[in-house]
From TrEMBL:
One of its GO terms (biological process) is metal ion transport. One of its GO terms (molecular function) is monoatomic cation channel activity. This is Ion_trans domain-containing protein. It is a multi-pass membrane protein. The chain crosses the membrane at residues 26-48, 197-221, 233-253, 274-296, 308-331. Residues 7-121 form the TRPM-like domain. The lineage of its organism: Eukaryota, Metazoa, Spiralia, Lophotrochozoa, Platyhelminthes. It comes from Rodentolepis nana. Keywords: Membrane, Transmembrane, Transmembrane helix.
Length: 351
């Protein structure tokens, strides 16, 4: 949505008219008269790509995609100049909400418009790394981060002493002596570091992945090992599995309520359908398992039926693990490539 002053609105509407009618030279001229040139160029690239998807004539569609790339390269060149001029200001400009473009930032527009050249720029990647690490320092060649995750699981109060933080974000200079740093390690700083550790996206991602792997393992044990309430181990596995499934179910419904728009949009998402099927399968399978060991006589049909329902529910942690791996820093790009290859193969089979 284009929003601004009266003069800016006129320029932006003319800019949009030029894009729609294919007067790209006029659009480039009008773009240079705007205050948010980078955001405008990314908006033009996004708009033209969307327009090319619905354009029937091949020549017009190819021209629109070509011009979209030209606008994107213009935004990349501006980003390049800003990044080498002032790195910190560039980081702020990337996420600054642009009033002229519906309070969207350049990164949000680029993400919506599949502007890969822009998102692959060093400035965007550095900003994403900062967001991913939060206040932590993650060294790929060091095992300290993995060790801090173990400490965070077994003994959370000790995390600030083992995790590696970016001390510049806590008002400390990197070149300060160690003795002075220790004197500044106050209770307030300790609490902040402890909180920041568990708020870091990289930490939350690691713990979510660990929880899903554990849930998947428990599902496999539940399928492969016959349930007997006389075994303390199986009672513990069943109880812990019910606990994890309940927690993830409540978390799913919490997210649904917070992001609720309408039921048709909710049910249209394949992932939401999968979750509903998994919840139904687990509740049904577990209920049948409990009934055949307490109330109903055990039969082959009921036993196999419970196994089928449990198999339906095991797809949830499996798909969740794949989704979590797809956003990982190191394996994510490979997972995305495999997903794209599978999608292309599927569409080729349909054709």
């Amino acid at each position: 949505m284009l929003v601004g002053s009266v003069e800016e609105d006129c320029t932006q509407y003319l800019f949009l008219w030029a894009l729609i009618t294919g007067r790209f030279e006029i659009a480039q001229f009008l773009l240079l008269t705007q205050t948010d040139i980078s955001a405008g160029a990314l908006f033009a690239a996004t708009f033209l790509r969307r327009l090319a998807d619905i354009t029937r004539q091949t020549t017009d569609s190819e021209e629109q995609r070509f011009q979209a790339r030209e606008f994107e390269l213009l935004a990349v060149s501006i980003l390049e100049a800003c990044y080498f001029s002032n790195k910190e200001n560039t980081m702020q400009l990337l996420v600054m909400e642009r009033r002229s473009y519906g309070m969207l930032s350049c990164m949000m527009i680029a993400s919506e418009g599949d502007c890969r050249d822009f998102m692959q720029h060093l400035a965007c990647q550095e900003y994403l790394d900062r967001v991913w690490a939060h206040t932590l320092q993650i060294n790929s060649s060091s095992s300290q981060f993995l060790f801090s995750l173990v400490v965070g699981t077994l003994c959370p109060p000790l995390v600030p002493y083992f995790a590696e933080y970016d001390e510049s974000k806590y008002g400390k200079q990197i070149d300060q002596p160690e003795a002075e740093k220790k004197r500044k390690f106050t209770v307030r700083c300790y609490r902040r570091k402890l909180k920041d550790f568990y708020l870091a996206p990289c930490v939350r991602h690691a713990y979510q992945l660990l929880a899903m792997v554990l849930l998947f393992t428990l599902f496999v044990i539940d399928l492969e090992v016959e349930l007997t309430f006389s075994s303390p181990f199986m009672c513990f596995i069943l109880g812990f599995l019910i606990f994890l499934a309940t927690v993830h179910t409540l978390e799913f419904f919490r997210i649904v309520i917070l992001n609720w728009i309408s039921f048709p949009l909710f049910i249209a998402e394949p992932y939401n359908k999968l979750i509903i099927v998994a919840i139904f399968g687990y509740v049904s399978g577990t209920t049948i398992q409990i009934l055949i060991h307490t109330v109903v006589p055990k039969t082959y049909f009921l036993e196999q039926l419970s196994q089928i329902f449990i198999v339906m529910s095991i797809f949830f942690p499996f798909i969740k693990i794949l989704r979590l791996l797809s956003i990982g820093r190191y394996i994510g790009s490979k997972m995305q490539m495999i997903s794209q290859m599978v999608s292309n193969w599927y569409f080729e089979m349909e054709d």
